[in-house]
């Protein structure tokens, strides 16, 4: 089986953690089948430069192409899927002369899924789309919704990282027989149980007191304002660490202002964006991991925390209900509500959570296990009688 996977979100030299969850699934899948990756680069004259390379590259032993496609920044965004397909058509035709894929694998419904659907239909190649959190943005726009619907209805299979998004796909008309829910996995060697005090020492965090940690960019939709407000109602020995960089209109300065407003500026720790190698230490250093997002697909932050043996308080969004066992591993609360968040944090702080029990009860799976399930979907597409 030859699989060509498409994802605009994939690690590169400038941002080696960009789309690392896509890379991890594909790296595991590449152990089972012949696979190449296309990570298209959006391009507009005089704005984005020419930083792309349609030639085959090697990224951590994976074969990757980065052809560019024309797009218009900020305007005509409903055309991105069509521009994606138009920009890649010639490149894909050239690739087929030396390497013919049996299956096209799109990792987001927009623009990857819509663009891949147009390419696949033109070239008569079967395709599969994976639904992630991007779907929710598309559902806010009628044109994008209809384009996504057509792409999903034409797919030979649809994979959803959450049961909630699978329900959205059914509402769009996708046959349940072609729909499979496969949540994300975890690098279980990287995210594992570590000694809490040693982790705090390594990260130069307070040795005493209780720590909450959120690993997420500082954009508003991650719910940091609500967590800071809830922090103000918790005992004075509780501090909050937010690991992430400025993004989507959110900044360190803004969060410091929110903390000052609620009188907890001395209990907020903002170390900024951290390397992937350090993220497990933050989870292990904390008493609780918090994710108060307004929207998610399958949040790796929840899975990674559980793999480290740290309980989680998270909002009921995306795949959280699928991946966070309650009450064994933490609590789930409504999004954008401070009172339930404060109550859940208080309850979890009052309890002792043996890390090994949290990890065992979580049921977190390796990427190899996830890849096996994905491979079975691909096999069924190419051999329907199986």
UniProtKB/TrEMBL annotation:
Domain of life of the organism encoding this protein: Bacteria
Q: What is the lineage of its organism?
A: Bacteria, Pseudomonadati, Thermodesulfobacteriota, Desulfuromonadia, Desulfuromonadales
**Residues forming coiled coils:** none
Instruction: Indicate the segments forming the Glycosyltransferase subfamily 4-like N-terminal domain, all copies.
Output: 63-189
Stored PANTHER family: GLYCOSYLTRANSFERASE
Q: Where are the transmembrane segments?
A: none
Keywords per UniProt: Transferase
User: Transferase: is it a keyword of this entry?
Assistant: yes
A GO MF annotation of the entry reads:
glycosyltransferase activity
Q: Which organism is it from?
A: Desulfuromonas acetoxidans (strain DSM 684 / 11070)
Pfam families the record matches? Glyco_transf_4, Glycos_transf_1
The Glycosyl transferase family domain sits at 195-352
* Keyword Transferase recorded: yes
Q: Can you say what this protein is called?
A: Glycosyl transferase, group 1
């Amino acid at each position: 089986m030859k699989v060509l996977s498409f994802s605009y979100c994939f690690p590169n030299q400038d941002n080696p953690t960009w789309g690392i969850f896509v890379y991890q699934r594909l790296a595991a899948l590449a152990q089972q089948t012949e696979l190449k990756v296309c990570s298209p680069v959006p391009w507009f004259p005089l704005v984005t430069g020419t930083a792309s390379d349609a030639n085959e590259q090697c990224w951590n032993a994976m074969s990757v192409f980065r052809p560019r496609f024309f797009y218009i920044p900020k305007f005509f965004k409903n055309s991105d899927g069509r521009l994606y397909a138009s920009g890649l058509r010639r490149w894909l035709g050239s690739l087929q002369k030396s390497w013919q894929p049996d299956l096209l694998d799109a990792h987001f419904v927009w623009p990857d899924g819509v663009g891949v659907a147009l390419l696949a239909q033109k070239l008569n190649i079967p395709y599969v789309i994976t639904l992630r959190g991007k779907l929710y943005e598309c559902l806010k726009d009628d044109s994008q919704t209809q384009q996504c619907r057509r792409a999903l209805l034409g797919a030979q299979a649809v994979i959803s990282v959450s049961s909630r998004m699978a329900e959205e796909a059914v509402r769009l008309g996708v046959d349940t027989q072609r729909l499979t829910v496969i949540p994300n996995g975890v690098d279980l060697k990287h995210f594992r149980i570590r000694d809490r005090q040693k982790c705090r020492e390594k990260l130069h965090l307070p040795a005493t007191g209780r720590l909450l940690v959120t690993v997420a960019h500082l954009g508003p939709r991650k719910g940091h304002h609500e967590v800071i407000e809830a922090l103000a109602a918790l005992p004075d020995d509780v501090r909050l660490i937010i690991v992430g960089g400025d993004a989507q209109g959110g900044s360190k300065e803004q969060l410091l202002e929110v903390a000052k407003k609620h009188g907890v500026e001395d209990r907020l720790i903002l170390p900024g964006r951290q390397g992937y190698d350090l993220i497990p230490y933050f989870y292990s250093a904390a008493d609780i991991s918090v994710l108060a997002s307004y929207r998610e697909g399958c949040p790796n932050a929840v899975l990674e925390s559980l793999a480290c043996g740290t309980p989680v308080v998270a909002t009921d969004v995306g795949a959280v209900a699928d991946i966070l066992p309650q009450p064994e591993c933490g609590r789930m609360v409504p999004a954008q509500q401070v009172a339930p968040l404060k109550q859940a944090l208080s309850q979890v702080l009052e309890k002792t959570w043996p890390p090994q029990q949290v990890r065992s009860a979580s049921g977190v799976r390796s990427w190899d296990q996830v890849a096996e399930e994905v491979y079975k979907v691909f096999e069924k597409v190419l051999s329907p009688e199986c």
